[in-house]
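Model the whole thing, not chain by chain.
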Amino acid sequence: MALDDKPTILIFACNWCSYAGADLAGVSRLEMPPNCRVVRVMCSARVRPEFVIAALSRGLDGVVILGCHPGDCHYSEGNYYTWRRALLLKGFLEYVGIEPGRFQLRWISASEGARFAQTITEITDTIKALGPNGRRRPQEG
Amino acid sequence: MAKRRIGVFVCYCGNNIGGIVRVPEVVEYARCLPNVVYAEGSLYACSEEGLSSIKAKIAAYGLDRVVVASCTPRTHETLFRNACEEAGLNRYLFEFVNVREHCSWIHMRAPDEATEKAKSLIKMGVAKSYYLEPQEELESEVYPEALVIGGGVAGMTAALNLAQQGLKVHLIEREKELGGLLSQVNKLFPANRDVKEIFDPLAEGVKNHPLITIYLGSEVEGVEGFIGNFKVRITRVEGEIKVGTIIVATGGRELKPIGQYGYPTVANVLTQLELEGRLKEGIDGWQSVVMINCVGARVTGRFYCGRFCCLTAMKNAILIKEGNPQAKVYILLQDVMASGVEAERYYRRSMERGVRFIRYDPISPPQILGERQAEGVKVYHALIGREVILPAQMVVLTTPLVPQADNERLSKMLKVPLGSEGFFLEAHLKLRPIEFATDGIYLCGSARYPSDIAESVSQAYAASAKAAIPMRQGLVRVEAITAFSQERLCHGCGNCLRVCPFGAIELKGSERGGKVAWVNAAQCKGCGCCVAACPNGAMQQRSFSDQQLMAMIEALVEEVSSGP
Amino acid sequence: MNNSAVLVIGGGIAGIQASIDLANLGFQVYLVERTPSIGGRMAQLDKTFPTNDCSICILAPKMIECASHKKVNLLTYSEVIEVEGRAGDFRVKILKKPRFVDMNRCTGCGECVENCPRRVPNEFNLFLDKRKAIYLLFPQAVPHKMTIDAQNCLYFLKGRCRLCEEVCLAKAIDFEQEEKIVELSVGAIILATGFDPFDVSALKEYGYGEIKNVITGLEFERLISASGPTSGELERPSDKKPPQVIAFIQCVGSRDVNYNPYCSAVCCMHATKEAILAGEHYPGLRSFVFYTDLRAAGKRFQEYINRAKEEYGVTYIRARPGKITAKDGRPIIWYEETLFKEGEERKVRKMEVDLVVLCQALVPHGSHQEVTRKLGIELDEMGFIRIPDRLSRPVDTSVEGVFACGFCQGPQDIPDSVIQASGAAARVAELLTVERM
């Protein structure tokens, strides 16, 4: 089902900012590559590093966490924790041999529909250029 | 694994989804997903017909989970949750999949891909819904009594308004009398009203109201609990006072600019409040007065502006002129803070009365001339471009209000934050200026930021409205997306409580010995930060558990693993 | 006699906040808003000072909370036409203008807008671009339902088209819809009608309307908004290129005995914010703010100004320019600096810039004239609602039972408006105590 130039990218988007920004991109009918799948969380801080590791080590081509701009977090500090975790996670992923670029953290506010579209397009291109995730295994049987 | 009876409803949304995504194909796909026993397409799932159909199918097929694939949950989630509830299904057994804003509308030129993506998103949504658990929204009782800390104009106003609404109030004031800064003020801008006109009716109202209990000469010693259920200990009072809400109205104090411009050793250099004291005693007749504004404000270490001190200076300058029309009165300032209608009008009036305004640059501040007392002031007059020497029988330093010395102590007791300047920090500067991030505690007056009387009173009314809400409702209801800790897995590391922005987590003794985390659901806001910080999965979030989110990831992983 | 219902006139942030608080206090609230959506001026802002929060991001949750509250009855696209009575017993008549769209059927899908052939100037974007004759006021509008602008609709003008009706699968278009009169009985009234921008073309010396690259503060706000007419690209009107030097002129029509003698309170901060936003969008862009008094007396406001100066290189010049001319599309500002450094020469200077932003005066919205007249509510000489006793009753008007919050009673920013809105709710609650819920 998944072909070489059709990466599958998992996106965690926070309810208050980035998910709303994605909604606005939709309302504005901004065309984007169809490779991403958005999972809604209340705050980007909900995202465990284990989710990212599991997703990338089991074959998804990319994982992106989207949060509110620093200072704008609906829960005041959540995105600062996300930032810290993401920095550590990037180091760890590189250490275990996952190409940098497969995991990204970006800030999108609820009014930035265009920025959401640009971000998705840009990240999809980056991940296409990296090729399919080598950890993908075809289903047995 | 237990079997479920999941129903999937895919919305056409007219042409918005149906015009790009091949809905019948998606419905077929959904029907074949594990544990899905029913699937249908709906022209407008959110319409009367759409909702009726969902309710009917829940009954007809004994559905125990419902997934709707349509627009964004940010608009219609409540609508569909209500429909489930009406059909007898717990409202938290519902999952929303966005195939419009996040699919059809952004892939209008790629209908094949959009259709595949819709299937994929629904597969993820169905996977999550399998693990949803029924939830009850927590209701926590609110004790209908309030504590107002501070008996100045703000505290008295809030207390009286609450009492008039029929709510019992405990008003605590650390001085022996009510009034706060009002007791030092002479007359009030802009009509030169006597302070008594404001203070007397308020104080009378507060003292005479049967629902207000006043504690003079008392301070708060300790606070425990949470919204609806605070237990407060006060000095000079036995036992605890139980209240549902707390209003912080502790005010501010005038900055005494020790070491600046000869204050306080030079006898004829005063602050504005000290001048007001002299005016109250009937002293007047000065020949020349120089007021220096922004003393200790808008400087490194205290960046803020005192907000109403320009008006205070003008008010006193006008009073001095009225006492002696021949007097030379100068106000040395940087910017004239007189926003709005009345203040701007007052500024013009003071100029018409002969008050002279001189702009100085903070780089070259004024200098006091004189030996044992001030006789004049030398200043670089920035508007005319040269130094001038002004006669000064008295020099008045206009200083801002600064935070009370014990703000930090009170902030720790209440577990509410202070801002960098030392005033209490509200939940949100723009839209929640009177509330704290911690529910049930509110803020008004100069405890928040220098506020004049009209503003302090406005804020007090606002705080009263906010405090009255949970008390009049009698309870607080919490959306079931809160965190909870599983005791058997928790080993009390405390990571969770360190990251909680709302102070909603405590460590409590467990039966096994040691401590475990406990989430106060009444304070939890459902961000999930603690869950991600928990090293072994003891902490989970209702409706966003690890199991539910991993199921979505698994669903995607499964898709990419089915090779060509 | 109805002491458990309240009328709120005006659906901006003040009206929204007052409605939410009153509804939570147990009152039945009728919120009347003239335009098809609540949100008001805040929906037109890009960011808000001093936090630089995205305006619609913090407003939208409040709009949704207000509209979905069980005790709030939203009457949008409506106006108050009759009001009489006294505190505790006001009788009000409200005119619901026909949208020609059935609110129960419309799902806000937008198919009709896509197909409508008629374009008209878009008032939400200060007429900088166009909208359709059937429209949503802005993307996050609440209620999220369409409205047909009958004055510009081809069917109403010429009897043809009706394309929207054809394409609407929910069958929500109803050209036969008539205006409705709603009669209400309420115990108290809150006015929250906000402001309008002053028409700065009156100041001929500044060239607004003549010189292309002279725009107003609100127009700048729409240009820099991600959801505005240029998707957030700051395009100079003359050549669509981004400006490299911007001048903000303060007090245009404010603090001016010829027009509005008062200070509009928010413009110093507003200009600073816009200068910061411009600097963020276009690194290297220079901004100059021509001011009289730099009024930054609110919480964190001085820090914001300092940030503008230190991080974004915004320069503040104390001057009220005498005139603005133009050369090859570049505006030239003629001014005299009024603050002196030692040894500086005093003379008239000229500054050539790419774009001029006139921070216009803000005047009370004309819509409250009718209501205030009918109830005998006093206005001050500027048209703001008079508050007889600001020190003890800062939100009480001259008529008992009628309160006013936000800009309609005096120039103020968002936090002050929100505070007054909650304060008005408290005063209403005091006036009409209701049984505990």
